[in-house]
């Protein structure tokens, strides 16, 4: 069995059955405990699980899109308005999964742009706007969160390049690390980062520090952070030391 297939099966087992021991995973997959330990180490390095004594666990804090979409709407709209103003007509824009990306999509009507996304709510918002060339990435449907994920999405992204990526997050650690609660989204977000020329993190004040056990990227992978309130000094320092511009509701935070 190929390593990639084993990794998929390990994550599926942990998501469906909770914490699992190395011996149990070894029996399920028909490989040695040593192989499982190496797989768990690799998956932990990728931020897709947490190793615990004798095994591993995946923690997912998933909420339906409709619930998340009703939270902090004014803050997300302020961030989205600034983000939309960064984009020039004729450019290509990659929009992440999530509700802030959806609020940004609402700000793009009437523009001459190419928009690439795996966010089905973004697709529905822009589908009838004839000025926008809309590219919907393929993948496996996550019904509750209205998005497409998986290796097909990642393969699509490897074929594309965008002038801008607008990235969402569950939380930003004091060291500037971008986190997520849903591990299945992490490889897609990482593929988006590779596909974007400029990477802009959209994060309202509640995302500092926010939450999330899976690391998406470090501050060195970001170009700009757009938020709605001043960022705490420790996190701001970490971001700025990495060369990240921090913007608060239309102004640069100094």
UniProtKB/TrEMBL annotation:
Gene3D superfamilies from the UniProt entry: 3.40.50.1360, Winged helix-like DNA-binding domain superfamily/Winged helix DNA-binding domain (1.10.10.10)
Keywords, sorted A to Z: DNA-binding, Transcription, Transcription regulation
InterPro entries linked: ArsR-like_HTH, Carb_Metab_HTH_regulators, DeoR-like_C, DeoR_HTH, NagB/RpiA_transferase-like, Tscrpt_reg_HTH_DeoR_CS, Tscrpt_reg_HTH_GntR, WH-like_DNA-bd_sf
Residue ranges crossing the lipid bilayer per the database entry: none
GO molecular function list: DNA binding
Top-level taxon: Bacteria
Stored Pfam families: DeoRC, HTH_DeoR
Domain HTH deoR-type intervals: 3-58
Name by which UniProt lists this protein: DeoR/GlpR family DNA-binding transcription regulator
Biological source species: Streptomyces coerulescens
Biological classification of the source: Bacteria, Bacillati, Actinomycetota, Actinomycetes, Kitasatosporales
